[in-house]
Amino acid sequence: MSNPLISAYRKPALYINLPSGGKYYNPPVKLSVDKELAIYAMTARDELITKTPEALFNGEATVSVIESCVPDIPNPRQIPINDLLVIMLAIRQASYGNEMDINAVCPNCKHDNLVAISVQNVINTATNIESVSPTLTLENDFVIMLSPYNLEDRTNMQIQQIKQMKMIEGLQNQKLDDKDRQALFGKTFVEMAELTVDLVTNCVDSVQAPGSDNEAITDKDLIREWLANITSNDYEKIKNKIDQLSDNGIKNTFNVNCEGCGHKWSTDVELDMANFFEG
């Protein structure tokens, strides 16, 4: 039973269109009649969570905030990665307003500029991929149904990348001979390659063999084994198609006019949980 006090207090602050158009969600996302997603402002608890480094690292902060601020998404871990940044920017806008301050150090005089950018303008640059076909047909007539990477995939990749970086740094500091160091480096890169295959496997919904009257293969173990045995050219085609489906198209390059010397330049800004939930 829902709390009537909470229902009366918390109302959607804004509605957004999703780059995916609401596709690739399991269970399905609940959209308005205009195919828009309701976004609520963060609570005090949500803001505390975004300040917790460990929760940011393992992705739990992102999941928790989305559960609170976007209740119409039943399973946040399955959010397509191309929708994720748009959703997080919308939560930021609903909670703190449309302006977001960024720091930009002038390459000419080194003055540290505080520049206000419009969150809505950033959201508006997102590319709608609803019309992009999820089907890929290889030259040998294998037909593959694909999905974008999701939040869980991204989190696993980020955690693994950080672990690998720490491992490599540790190897460089250890007193090992060249043979042992090369062996450990090789093991590290093999583990990363295996993770990449796992992520691609997660995005392959089905594979239909040419000339087959049977149903398309959906078993993930069989699909992973097949991926491990196809040519690098076909593997790259599949991966590139997944990358296309996962791309949100958001532009993060902004024009800056230095307050110190008047120099004008363009700068790229990293947009993620760690640097834009600061109020």
Which descriptors apply to this entry?
279 residues, alpha+beta, 3-stranded antiparallel β-sheet, two-stranded antiparallel ribbon
Quick take:
With 279 residues, the chain is an alpha+beta fold. Helix content is 46%, strand content 15%. The mean pLDDT is 87.
Detailed description of the structure:
It is a single chain. 46% of the residues lie in helices and 15% in strands. The model has no long low-confidence stretch (mean pLDDT 87). α2 runs antiparallel to α4 (60-69), α7 runs antiparallel to α8 (178-203) and α8 (178-203) crosses α9. It has helices spanning 4-9, 44-50, 53-58, 60-69, 81-96, 119-124, 151-173, 178-203, 220-227, 232-246, 273-276, and strands spanning 14-16, 37-39, 99-105, 112-118, 135-137, 143-146, 204-208, 253-257, 264-268. β8 and β9 (264-268) form a beta hairpin. The chain is globular, with a radius of gyration of 22 Å. The protein is of the alpha+beta class and 279 residues long. The strands form 4 sheets. A 3-stranded antiparallel β-sheet has the order 5-6-7.
Share of helix, binned: 40-55%
Biggest sheet strand line-up? 5-6-7
Strand content: 15-25%
Structural class: alpha+beta
Please give the radius of gyration in angstroms: 22 Å
- Low-pLDDT runs of 5+ residues are none
Terminal CA distance reads 33 Å
Shape type = globular
Oligomer: single chain
Q: How can the largest sheet be summarized?
A: 3 strands, antiparallel
Count of distinct strands: 9
Helix and strand succession?
Answer: HEEHHHHEEHEEHHEHHEEH
Overall pLDDT confidence: 87
Give me the number of helical elements: 11
